[in-house]
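Quick one from the shared queue. A colleague (R.T.) flagged non-specific serine/threonine protein kinase as missing a structural entry in our internal table.

Convert sequence to C-alpha cells.
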Amino acid sequence: MITSLTTTDGHHNIVSGAGFETTPFGRKADEDIKKLRVLKELVAEKKMNEYDSGGRSGDKGPGAENDGNTAPLPEKVSVGGSPMYRIGKKLGKGGFGQVYVGRRIGATGPGALEVALKFEHRSSKGCNYGPPYEWQVYNALGGSHGVPRVHYKGRQGDYYVMVMDILGPSLWDVWNNNSHTMSIEMVACIAIEAISILEKMHSRGYVHGDVKPENFLLGLPGTPDEKKLFLVDLGLATKWRDSSSGQHVEYDQRPDVFRGTVRYASVHAHLGRTGSRRDDLESLAYTLIFLLRGRLPWQGYQGENKGFLVCKKKMATSPETLCCFCPAPFRQFVEYVVNLKFDEEPNYAKYISLFDGIVGPNPHIRPINTDGAQKLIYQVGQKRGRLTMEDEEDEQPKKKVRMGMPATQWISVYNARRPMKQRYHYNVADVRLAQHIEKGNEDGLFISSVASCSNLWALIMDAGTGFTAQVYELSPYFLHKVGCVLLIQRLVYCNSCYIYI
C-alpha cells in the first residue's frame, strides 16, 4: 500500500508498505508497480545508467569502477613471488579493474606461457582500505568448481595485481559472434552448468551479485578446458551466510543502494533489498532468456529514470510473456526462482533436471561440459533428466501464501526529497523506545515515520522534518497497533506532532 503524505512545508513523502516481500512476477503486479514510486527520485539521483557494465549489455551500479586514474601500467609484472610477466593485449575491463594477457618472460614451448593479469589501481573504490575486497573472495572460492584459480597476487607500483588462469571468450562474445543467436541445446547446457557453479559458490557462503553473459567465460580454445564454463568478476560478491554463526544474514531494504547490472539484476536488487541466493538465480534466468531470444523486454530505456523503468517493466512482465518463444523448462525455471523467499534454500537439483531433458543424452558431445552438474542430477532420481518427486511431477509452481505471523521485514519509508541526516531503528522493544527517541532529539533528529509489529517498533528519525519539538506517549490502553500506526501517520506531520503510541 502506498500512501502519499503532505507536510506543512509542501513536501510529499511516499510510504511503502512492505510487511511482506514483493513477488516480482504475476502475483500482485499492480501493487508492486505502485511500490516502485518510492524508487523514482532515488534512482534518478543515483543515475544508475551512468555506470558501465564492463560490456555492452547494460549498466552497472555503485561499486563499478571506471578508469579514473592516469597512472600507466608497468611493462613487466612480478608479484607475490611470481615469475616475471610481460604485459600483452587487453582482454577486457570489468566492474573492478582491467585484465591483460601476461606472457612469462624466458619460458619456451606452447604450454604454461600465458596468464591473465588483473590490475586494480590503489585509489579505486575497492582498494580504500588496502588490497581489493575481491581478493578475499578468491581466497575463499578460487579454484573451486567454475571459478578460475589465482596463482599469485600482490602490489606493484600503484596497482594491485592478480595472476590468474587465462580463459577464453565470454558468453556475450560467443552470442555476439554468432549473429546474436544461440541454440536451445547450447543455452540449456549453459543453464545446467551455471546452476551447478552457483550451487557450489552458494555452498561456500557467497552470492555472486552480478550474474550476466559477460561474466561467464569458456576455457581457452584448443585446451582441455575449452568447453568448460567459468564465472568471473567477484568484486560484487557478498556473503549470504554469517561465517561464525552459520546463520543467514538479516534482511534489509535500502532503495538508494543498487548493486549489479540493470539489465540482468533481480527485482529485489532494484528495490535495494539485501542480496541472497535467489538474486543470483533470477539474474541467471534473465541471462538465459537473453541468450535464447536475443533481447529482453526491458531493453532500450534511456535517461535518468532508466533503472526505475526497467524495474517497473520486470515487475509487469509475467513468466509466460517473458518466455513465450522458449521451451517450457525456461518458463518453469523463471517461475521457480522469482518466487523464492529471501532466506529460502534453492532446489538446485530440481532446476538442473528441468533442462537436462533438452540436451543430448551423450555428455561428451554437448556444446558445454556439464560434468560438474552430474552429482546434482543424480540427486533427483536414478534415471537421467526425470524428477522423482511425490505428487509433483507435472505440477506448476504454486503461488506462495504467507501464513501465520507477519514476516520480519519492516515497512520501508523513504522521503522523495534530497537525502538528509537520518537514523533508522528496527525491532525496538517498548522499554527501549524512549531512549532512542531522546537520543535522537538531542542530536536534532525527530520522528518522521513509525511502524509496529508484535510489540516491536520500527522508527525513522531525521533532520528534515521541520519540527522543533515532539511529544509522544506510550500507552498500553490505546488502540490495537495496526490502527495505531494509521493514526500516527495522520498526526506525525502536524506542527505540534503529538504521537500517541
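The longest strand covers residues 85-93.
Residues 452 and 483 are 10 Å apart (CA to CA).
Added to the table.
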